[in-house]
User: Fold this.
Amino acid sequence: MIDLKGKVAIVTGATRGIGLEISRVLASRGCDLAMLDIQLGDGSSISEVAKDFGVVAKGYACDVSNTEAVEAVFKQIIADFGKVSVLVNNAGITRDALLMRMKDDEFDSVIAVNLRSVFVCTRAISRHMMGNRAGRIINMASINGIRCQAGQANYAASKAGVIGITKSNAMEFASRGVTVNAIAPGFIRTAMTEKLPAEAVAKYTAAIPLQSMGSPRDVANAVAFLASDEAAYITGQVLGVDGGLNS
Ligand SMILES: NC(=O)c1ccc[n+]([C@@H]2O[C@H](COP(=O)([O-])OP(=O)(O)OC[C@H]3O[C@@H](n4cnc5c(N)ncnc54)[C@H](O)[C@@H]3O)[C@@H](O)[C@H]2O)c1
Assistant:
C-alpha cells in the first residue's frame, strides 16, 4: 500500500482529466496538494479532493507557459505548505495540424505549454528540493513523443523534449536525492481524446494489445508509485502506461 502521508505535491493541469485523477489518487494516499491550472472553474474539483480524502488541497490559477507567474506561484506554494515533496508536470495541450498548414503560434504554444513549462516549473522548485535532499519530479510525456502520429509535429517534438529534459535533470539532481522520471501514456480517455473522430478512436483502440483505451486512473496509479518511497532507486526512466502499444 503506497503511503504518501506527510508529503506535499504540486500537480499542474490539475482540475480535469489525468491531472485531476492524479490529484485524487495522491490525496487518497494521504498527500496534501497544490492544484495548479490555467482555469480553476468554480473550484469544486479542488474542494472535493480536500473533502473526499481529508487532505489539504489548495487551488492556484497559473499559466505554466508564463515564467513570472510560475515563479510567483511556486514561492507562494512553498510559503503556504512549508515544503514540496513532489512535482507532477502534467499540464498539456494539442494543436494538431498537418505540417504544411501548421501556424507558428500553433507550434510555439504547444512547445511553451508542454515542454518549456517543464523547464520553468522544475527550475522553480529545484533549489527547494535539492536543499531538502529529497524530491520526486514526474513529467507527463506521451507515446506520441516516442512513436509519432502525422499532424503532431508540435506535440511530438514537445513530448520527445519532455523525455530529454527528464533524463538530463535526473543526472543533474541524482546526487541530491531528487529523482526525475517520465510517464508516457498511450491512448487515455479524457477531454483531449474526446476531440478525435470516432473512426480514429476505433482504429487506435484496435491496435492496443490490452484491447481498450486506458483510464486517467491507470496513469495516476503510476504517478503515485513514482512519488512513493518505494520508487527511491528509479530515476531517468520513461514508464509506458499504454496497454502494450509501445512494445
Ligand atoms: N489523454 C491522452 O490520451 C494522453 C496521452 C498521452 C499523454 N497525455 C498527456 O497527459 C497530460 C494531461 O492530458 P489530459 O488528457 O488530462 O488533458 P486535458 O485537456 O483533459 O487536461 C489538461 C489540463 O491542463 C490545463 N492546462 C492547459 N494549458 C495550461 C496552461 N498553460 N497552464 C496551466 N494549465 C493548463 C487544462 O486547463 C486542463 O485542466 C498532458 O500533458 C497530455 O499531453 C494525454
Remarks:
- The first helix runs from residue 17 to 28.
- The chain has one domain: 8-241.
- The longest strand covers residues 178-185.
